[in-house]
Write a structure and sequence with these properties.
mainly beta, 4-stranded antiparallel sheet, globular
Amino acid sequence: GDVLATPSDGQVTVQARLIQSEGPKEVVRLGELLISKPHGIFSAGQWIKPVNAIGAEIIETDIELYNFIVDDCKPFIVEGWSVASIGTFCEGTHDMLRAKHQLWASKKIVDLFKMHPGWPNIRL
């Protein structure tokens, strides 16, 4: 798989990619980065939603969005931003008392996607 840079000057290997199909959606623009509204980013020492980042702008678009499953569910760098990968626990934005966060903020979601017939290129 491809190799991505991590915030700690390391690297992770892409195990799989998830593609959210084209279609009308609101996304957050952070400079050159277009990212889904619920996606976690690390900014100013904490995990936040992209809409709360300085300079964030909500726009309408119909592009495909990509996310990645990487080694150990680590965050990686995109367009200068540290972003969560599938399964990253984002302290401060994930509440592990919520079932949705117990799944999406853990390796459990990775294990489920590994069973998807489209693995490692999963279309949502």
